[in-house]
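queue> pop job 88
queue> type: inverse folding (structure -> sequence)
queue> payload:
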């Protein structure tokens, strides 16, 4: 189908486009920006006046819950939520049930996602068999036959540091990115909140900042030794980010992201045991939040992700430490990122880059750009539209959000996937 997007403010960091332009789409690809191609006849026209037209969002960490945890969410429910949020590519960690340590599980997920066709789904392969942290998975096979974009042990610890070294060596030999959850399991000691005044006052088992910084320090030394390409997922502390920034300056092949909620919430938001604020890594101190925001300004943070983890209501009804960690974050990713623009933490171009181009580079996929002949994966949103967060109205099956009743700006009007409109606001 030939589609014309008219009168929109087009932002494409890859091609340094930041201006009012028309976008021309044919056969699922972008064929021109600005100038009408000869003989082009639009079968459908989208009026994007007063709206931003940007590449579709690439989200680095999304749990779809299928297979194995369909009572929390399904590939259908969560990819529909992604489409409604302007997200055209999601990367899922390997901690499904069964986990993604065989090609069969990966093929099942890809087949189901392709049938639903609401967004592209890419998978991380399990670093170790069964995510048990002991025996390395068949990384080379999973890369070749399952098209895995990298390897990860999700939130599960490895048996010891030697297993991590061997895993990095194997990943490096396969030219695969290793995605790291930086947490020293001994220091974390089954905690559920940041170690500080709030956890002490509430009597909650705590996770010190050193649980993250010690793991980052260890992993950086192994990355230097093995030469593996590594990505630190959902970093939560200012000191850990500073360590990674220094390593990048020294030439180590590392990248880093943080979850959007860590830029807006601190451990103070736990209040009186609000279980929707139970996340791993935990919400840190005000100093850490400020440090992460400074990292965005200084371009030390490569990307922003939702770290989407939908839960059923029961998962958040137990005492705080017994609840399951995670936030349903797809539908607040873009407006909370836009809030960082409105608060002068980022400019609009940088925000778009950290939601699209940079995560696509980390995954090594052809996405995050409006280049000519690239797939027409596009997000169109109105940055001025205000709305109130009502989780019960989420498209996602997970309604577990700490942002209840927050007034946000930014609402998606259209999402295009390979030139097809997969979401249109009513």
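queue> result:
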């Amino acid at each position: 189908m030939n589609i014309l997007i008219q009168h929109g403010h087009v932002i494409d960091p890859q091609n340094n486009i930041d201006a009012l332009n028309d976008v021309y789409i044919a056969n699922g690809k972008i064929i021109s920006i600005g100038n009408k191609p000869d003989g082009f006849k639009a079968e459908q026209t989208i009026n994007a006046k007063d709206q931003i037209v940007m590449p579709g969002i690439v989200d680095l960490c999304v749990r779809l819950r299928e297979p194995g945890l369909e009572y929390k969410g399904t590939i259908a429910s969560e990819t529909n939520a992604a489409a409604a949020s302007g997200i055209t590519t999601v990367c899922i960690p390997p901690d499904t049930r069964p986990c993604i340590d065989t090609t069969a599980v990966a093929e099942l997920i890809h087949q189901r996602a392709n049938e639903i066709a609401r967004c592209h789904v890419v998978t991380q392969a399990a670093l170790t068999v069964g995510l048990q942290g002991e025996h390395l998975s068949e990384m080379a096979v999973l890369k070749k036959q399952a098209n895995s974009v990298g390897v990860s042990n999700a939130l599960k610890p490895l048996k010891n540091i030697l297993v991590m070294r061997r895993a990095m060596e194997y990943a490096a030999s396969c030219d695969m990115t290793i995605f790291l959850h930086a947490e020293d399991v001994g220091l974390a000691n089954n905690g559920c909140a940041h170690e500080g005044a709030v956890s002490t006052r509430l009597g909650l088992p705590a996770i010190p900042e050193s649980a993250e910084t010690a793991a980052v320090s260890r992993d950086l030394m192994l990355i230097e030794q093995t030469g593996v390409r590594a990505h630190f997922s959902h970093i939560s502390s200012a000191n850990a980010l500073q360590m990674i920034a220094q390593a990048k300056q020294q030439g180590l092949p590392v990248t880093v992201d943080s979850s959007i909620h860590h830029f807006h919430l601190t451990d103070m938001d736990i209040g009186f045991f609000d279980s929707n604020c139970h996340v791993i890594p935990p919400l840190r101190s005000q100093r850490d939040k400020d440090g992460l925001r400074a990292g965005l300004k200084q371009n030390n943070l490569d990307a922003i992700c939702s770290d989407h983890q939908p839960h059923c209501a029961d998962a958040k009804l137990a005492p705080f430490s017994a609840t399951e960690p995670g936030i349903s974050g797809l539908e607040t990713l873009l407006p909370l990122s836009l809030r960082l623009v409105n608060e002068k933490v980022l400019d609009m171009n940088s925000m778009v880059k950290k939601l699209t181009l940079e995560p696509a580079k980390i995954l090594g996929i052809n996405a995050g750009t409006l280049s000519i002949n690239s797939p027409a994966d596009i997000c169109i949103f109105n940055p001025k539209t205000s709305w109130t967060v009502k989780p019960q109205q989420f498209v996602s099956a997970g309604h577990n959000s700490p942002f209840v009743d927050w007034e946000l700006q930014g609402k998606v009007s259209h999402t295009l996937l390979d030139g097809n409109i997969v979401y249109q606001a009513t």
